[in-house]
Amino acid sequence: MKWLSFVGRNLLGLSALLLAHNFVDQYILHGGTDWTDYAPYLFLVLMYGWIVFHNRVLFERLFLGGNRVAYFGWLGLCMLVGTVNMTLILRQLFGVDNVVPHLLRYYSDTVTGLGVYVTYRYLTTTSANPPASIAPQTPLPTEPTYLSCLVNGVPQQIPVVTIRYVEGLENYIKIFMAGQMHVVRMTLKEAELRLPKDQFVRISKSHIVNLTQAQRLDADHVQVGAQTLRIGRVFKRYTAEQLP
């Protein structure tokens, strides 16, 4: 249960704070025969309560919540009130003239408590979220260097660098190369997906051009070898983005 864990942690912290100080030498201001004999213990309990309030309310909710101006404002106000109260109590109730050492202890305990809390948060967060193992990187897919197809029923691996342009004819395409042409059962859309994107660009509903084979480019035409192909009106903007 979370509340039991919270109470247990704070009881342990309070016990450590009480044991860490020498009550007789440092915190018994002027001994008495009444409740003032236990005033140092009460002071430590109140000090621990302030540290918990500062860490869990002011620091965690305001500072870590992003409202740092409000955090420093409330912190300054609380420290001022605590300083004034402690000075009045030490001087009027216990007759202490030099309150500076006790005020410095008040400030240092506040800072120390914050440091312990930040360390605790760091350790618990790190243990709850161990660093994820680095998965082996999957090599990026490389662009195809061959176009696999059937030419007259025979499997062929056509090097893409030899293809000048592709012309679509419904469910068939014509693959034009230097000195030869193949008719392949394949749609132009499928050919567009299988050809390297950084090398081939579709310029119309009927043609895909190998840019490395183009001799002349302008806003309306692409010349590939002796063939001049017209850039479709719908494809002009897309083609302009792809052409060098």
How is this structure best described in words?
With 244 residues, the chain is an alpha+beta fold. It has helices at residues 2-19, 23-27, 39-63, 68-93, 100-128, 188-194, 236-242; strands spanning 146-151, 154-159, 163-169, 172-177, 180-185, 200-202, 207-210, 214-217, 221-224, 227-230. β4 and β5 (180-185) form a beta hairpin. Mean pLDDT is 78; it is low at 22-33.
* Intertermini distance: 66 Å
Query: Which regions are unreliable across 5 or more consecutive residues at pLDDT < 50?
Result: 22-33
Instruction: Tell me the number of strands.
Output: 10
> The biggest beta sheet, please?
5 strands, antiparallel
User: Into how many domains do the coordinates divide?
Assistant: 2
Task: Write out the strand line-up for the largest beta sheet, numbering strands in chain order.
Answer: 5-4-3-7-6
Helix percent reads 40-55%
State the helix count.
7
Strand content: 15-25%
Radius of gyration: 40 Å
- Which descriptor suits the 3D outline? rod-shaped
What's the rounded overall pLDDT mean? 78
Structural class by sheet pairing and helices: alpha+beta
Strand/helix succession = HHHHHEEEEEHEEEEEH
Spell out the key features of this protein.
single chain, 244 residues, alpha+beta, OB fold (Dihydrolipoamide Acetyltransferase, E2P), 2 domains, 5-stranded antiparallel β-sheet, 3-stranded antiparallel β-sheet, 7 helices, 48% helix, 20% strand, rod-shaped, DNA binding, membrane
